[in-house]
Structures are given as C-alpha cells and as structure tokens.
Design brief:
Layout lengths: L32 E6 L7 E6 L2 E4 H7 L4 H9 L6 H6 L1 H15 L9 H7 L2 E3 L3 E4 L7 E4 L3 H11 L15 E3 L5 E3 L2 E4 L2 E4 L8 E4 L3 E2 L2 E7 L18 E8 L2 E2 H7 L13 E3 L4 E2 L7 E2 L17 H6 L1 E2 L2 E7 L1 H5 L5 E7 L7 H9 L10 E3 L14 H4 L7 E2 L5 E2 L7 E8 L7 E11 L4
Parallel strand pairs: 6-22, 8-16, 9-26
Antiparallel strand pairs: 1-2, 1-5, 2-3, 3-4, 6-7, 10-11, 12-15, 13-14, 13-22, 14-16, 14-17, 18-19, 20-21, 20-25, 23-24, 25-26
This protein binds calcium ion.
Pfam families: FAA_hydrolase, FAA_hydrolase_N
GO biological process, one term: homogentisate catabolic process
Keywords: Calcium, Hydrolase, Magnesium, Metal-binding, Phenylalanine catabolism, Tyrosine catabolism
C-alpha cells in the first residue's frame, strides 16, 4: 500500500507557477499520467505528466537524459502511444518516476538552474495546445457494481419486489464489458438504437433509445498483470493497480430493461464509454485513504477479501461531481449545471477487493486492463450518479437553472464528470474533467 512520503508535503511548491495556483487540479503532489500530442501536429501520441497547466512530454524527457536509473527507464516506457509498457513495469518504477519528476519540478530544487531542470523546462507543452487519446491499449474492460446505494435504487426500479440480490453483500458483482468503444474525454456519439419494449406492448420495436443515461464511475487501470491460474492476494492487490481516472459508462435504460435478463447488460452499455485523459496514481491518492467499513449487521467480507491494510485504508475519499450542458445553455454562453455531488468513499467494495476477486478463480489480468467501479451513488438521492435514480425512473424531472428540465438525456446534451480530493493538511489534487456528448441517432 502506498504511504505518505515527501512528495505529499502540502507545503511543496513548483517552479511551474500554474501548479501552485489555489484550486489547481495538478499541483506538484499529483503528477497524473496521460497520452497526448500537440494538437494538429499529426505527431505520434506519447505519454505525458501534468504539472499545473502544462504537460511534460515523456518522449522528449526520456531522450533529454534528465532522469537517471529506474526513473529514466520508466520515462522511456511511458514515451509511447500507450502507457502499457510503463504500467507493466510495476510500482517501484512508477514511484521512481514520480519522485524523479518531483525533485526536478520543486521550487527549491538544488539545481533549479541546472541542466536537468533546464532539460525538463524544454519538455513542457501547454495543455491548451494538446489533444489526448485513451491512455492505454485496453485489452479487457470489466464493469463492477460497487455502490450498494446504486444497486438498491436500480433494483427497486427494475425489480420492485426484490431490489438487492442476496449475493450483493458477499460478491463484488461485475460483468465483462467491451473495450473497443471506450473513448477519450470529448467523445461524441450517436444516440444508440435498440430493441425497446413498452411494458404493455406485445412485441419490441427497433428505435433510438428514449432513456439515455449517464453513469458516474471511476476507472481503475491495471498495472502489472498476473499469470493465468495465479490469483492476486489482497495484500498484493494494489501493487497491480496503476491508477484511477474518471469514467462515464453511458447507458440506454430502455434497451437495458428489455435485454438484461438472464445474462446482464449487453447493447445498452457497449456503444460508448468515456474516460478522462488523466490517470491519478495510487501514490498520489495516499493522503486520501479512508477506512473500509461495513454497516452494522452486514456480513464481513470473506477472508480472501479482507486484510488489515484494506480495513485501515482501502477506501478513497474522492469527491465527484456531474454537470450537464444543454444546447440551449451552450448557445446562451452558460456553464454546465450540477446534477449531483458525491464521494467514492461510499463504495461497498474497495479497489483491492475488486482486483483480488477478479483473479480468485485464476483469471489473468493484463497491463492496461480497465475496471469500472460501477455507478457511484451515495447514500442520499441527490448523491445518485445516474439520471434513472435522480428522476426516480423518469417520473420526477430535474429542473435546470435556465428553466429547462430533464428526465433522460436529449440530443446535444453534453455531460461532464469532475473529481478531486481535498482535506485539511493535504494538497488538493484533481482528476481534470471527462466530457461526452449525445448526438442525434443515425438515420
Ligand atoms: Ca456501469
């Protein structure tokens, strides 16, 4: 488990001034990873690290020789068009790179005018001038279901007599999703068509979904994999996690309601999922660990899903927010309206438990695999991470500040997810933003 060290010192400042601005997502204590290129350059995509409003070009940095040893090796592994080679190197390499960059970026670096710092200065690109791509070659995508509040709310709508299945409090539920349709923030996609069946209709029809929804999730990128047949124990689970991003798992509720039994979600989920450009490492998140607890009366996890470290700090207090920007708001120059606010701390299962459970049968994970946390609804309805919950199945429309209202998404609607961590005694760090937009269905 990644613990606190000098890179978390809330007093640390960088000579990159924008990193020291109050409210910046990317201070020197964060250093999240992305894959980017200079916009319009047609150049090859390459790995990058955020500092303030800049990106450090890892390909250029690796060639400049500003880092030594394992840190230099890690920078070179992160220089390509996907972060998989860096992910495969494991936590010692990720830490060496983080610490190497921290030493070069801090305001009081002993050699602040030295050649290594000068080399790094030449590797900075303004974030305003870059475009991003999905940061890893995602071989497999698994979507979990770790919010008991979401599972209960959805269950009530889909199965009023039997909302929460009896396995929920024992098994970290998940299903295998589709990696090909995962896109980067800014993704726009046509409204999906599918089989829709009204409750009183005799047969379904093929039509564009009328109940397009969002799912506020976190994405968990796997670092080192495991050999098929060799489960990852819970004590070792986090060593296999590279970091966490924002994830919007768009969902067509009307397609879902008709297709999901008996094998689970299929075409209602696989037309698009959007990730944020930035992956925040578990080391950066160390100040925001919180105890994993179970409500009184709930079963404790089976021994293979339990450890002292997981109980002590297996959960993360990550603040999450969803905003909606309609065509009308965009035309009027307004900013997005908040749909919900919650925290990842309410999840019923931890990151470590997801990794361990996924591999307990011998299933092999690979570098770059992505887990979705599942919709992260909090305990109260205003903390729900999906419209189907916020509107009680479309029955209670949400009033927007400009006079519009929504039950589900309309064509042109753009949704933004934001995430950040903030508490006294620690530096505020952020995840940036994850944008996506629903376009009209294709004819
Ligand atoms: Ca989902």
């Amino acid at each position: 488990m990644s613990l606190l060290n000098h890179t978390h010192d809330p007093a640390a400042r960088s000579w990159v001034q924008s990193a020291n601005a109050a409210g910046s997502d990317f201070p020197i204590q964060n250093l999240p990873f992305c894959v980017f290129r200079r916009r319009g350059s047609g150049a090859a995509f390459r790995g990058g690290v955020a500092i303030g409003d800049q990106v450090i070009d890892l390909a250029q940095l690796g060639a400049a020789g500003a880092l030594q040893g394992l840190a230099a090796e890690a920078a070179l592994a992160g220089a390509g068009a996907s972060l998989n080679p860096l992910m495969a190197l494991g936590p010692a390499a990720w830490q060496a790179l983080r610490h190497g960059l921290f030493d070069l970026l801090k305001a009081d670096a002993p050699d602040v005018a030295g050649t290594a710092v000068e080399a790094l200065r030449g590797c900075l690109v303004a974030q305003a001038q870059v475009e991003y791509t999905v940061p890893a070659q995602i071989g497999d995508y698994t979507d979990f279901y770790t919010s008991v509040h979401h599972a209960t709310n959805i269950g009530k709508l889909f199965r009023p007599d039997n909302p929460l299945m009896p396995n929920y409090k024992w098994v970290p539920i998940g299903y295998h999703g589709r990696a090909s349709s995962i896109g980067i923030s800014g993704q726009a996609f046509p409204r999906p068509k599918g089989q829709l069946k009204a409750p009183d209709a005799e047969a379904p029809v093929l039509a564009p979904s009328k109940r397009m929804d969002i799912e506020l999730e976190l994405g968990i990128f796997i670092g080192q994999g495991n050999e098929q047949g060799s489960p990852i124990g819970i004590e070792d689970a986090e060593n296999h996690v590279f970091g966490i991003c924002l994830l919007n798992d768009w969902s067509a509720r009307d397609i879902q309601a008709w297709e999901y039994q008996p094998l689970g979600p299929f075409l209602s989920k696989n037309f698009a999922s959007t990730v944020s450009p930035w992956i925040v490492t578990l080391e950066a998140l160390a100040p925001y660990r919180v105890p994993f607890t179970r409500p009184e009366g709930d079963p404790q996890p089976l021994p293979y899903l339990d450890s002292a470290a997981n109980r002590q700090g297996g959960s993360f207090d990550i603040q999450l927010q969803v905003g909606l920007l309609t065509d009308q708001m965009r035309a009027a120059g307004q900013s997005d309206a908040q749909l919900c606010r919650t925290s990842y701390r309410h999840a019923y299962w931890t990151v470590a438990q997801m990794v361990t459970h996924h591999t307990v049968n011998g299933c092999n994970l690979q570098p770059g695999d992505l887990f979705g946390s599942g919709t992260l609804s909090g305990p109260t309805l205003d903390q729900a991470g999906a419209l189907i919950e916020l509107t009680s199945g479309g029955k209670h429309p949400i009033a927007l500040p400009n006079g519009e209202s929504r039950t589900f998404l309309e064509d042109g609607d753009a949704v933004v997810l934001r995430g950040w961590c903030e508490q006294a005694g620690a530096a505020r760090i952020g995840f940036g933003e994850c944008w996506g937009q629903v376009l009209p269905a294709r004819a």
